[in-house]
Amino acid sequence: MYDRSAELYDAIYSFKNYEEEATKLNQIIQKRKRSSGNDLLEVACGTGNHVTYLKSHYAVEGLDINERMLRIARKKHPDIVFHRGDMVSFKLNKQFDAITCLFSAIGHLKTKRKLGLAIRNMSRHLKPGGVLVVEPWFTPQQWHRRSVHANFVDKPELKIARMNISKARGRLSVMDMHHLVATPKRVEHFVERLELGLFTKDEYLDAFRGANLETTYDPEGIMGRGLYIGTH
Ligand SMILES: C[S@@+](CC[C@H](N)C(=O)[O-])C[C@H]1O[C@@H](n2cnc3c(N)ncnc32)[C@H](O)[C@@H]1O
Fold this sequence. Notes:
Layout lengths: L8 H4 L5 H15 L6 E5 L5 H6 L4 E6 L2 H10 L4 E4 L11 E6 L10 H13 L1 E9 L13 E8 L2 E8 L1 E3 L2 E11 L4 E11 L3 H10 L3 E5 L8 E5 L1
Parallel strand pairs: 1-2, 1-4, 2-3, 4-5
Antiparallel strand pairs: 5-12, 6-7, 7-9, 8-9, 9-10, 11-12
Helix pairs in contact: 5-6
The structure holds S-adenosylmethionine (SAM).
S-adenosylmethionine binds next to helix 3.
């Protein structure tokens, strides 16, 4: 997962406005946070793009499962501590005023059981009055099988065409991401399979409530995918 594509991640997702998202996120956190500090943990931080804009407001740390993504994040932010860990089981001897898990990274957990464990684990790392903000993946109702997707990068020395057809296996969304990548050295093709759990709104809310979080759902969120916000 993201191993071959880690170096291409920022180019593929250059359409995302991380600055605007971080501004909205900051407003949401400030509205809901009851603790007085400003320690923030960005879980599944990827290449650290939200960190770029959050670090002027918070004392930020990052965490991700993928070493290649972390390597890129560390290079961008030598001033920030990044941990390698699984959101289901990481254990830092520290509690935070805010924990964020964005761009549907939570969907990488394929079962309701793991969803519950991850929300509880993140909640355990919150100070009393701290806030957990999770941007969900699609619900089973929102997932359209057989829809066709493409994403193109057209830079002078890097061309990418990434395509997939949305598939599903039970409550799992399955995407075989075909990458065609051209650099001055070569043109290569590789496929990366992404499998993400399709959880209902009630399943997300149950997971939050099971972690003793006072929870609300914002259907718009920071980029139209919705947001679950829980205060400890
Ligand atoms: C779609 S990317 C989102 C990255 C970043 N949050 C962003 O907005 O660009 C999903 C990230 O989740 C990470 N990830 C997947 N499963 C994880 C897990 N169990 N624990 C921690 N990180 C995980 C991946 O390595 C990847 O960096």
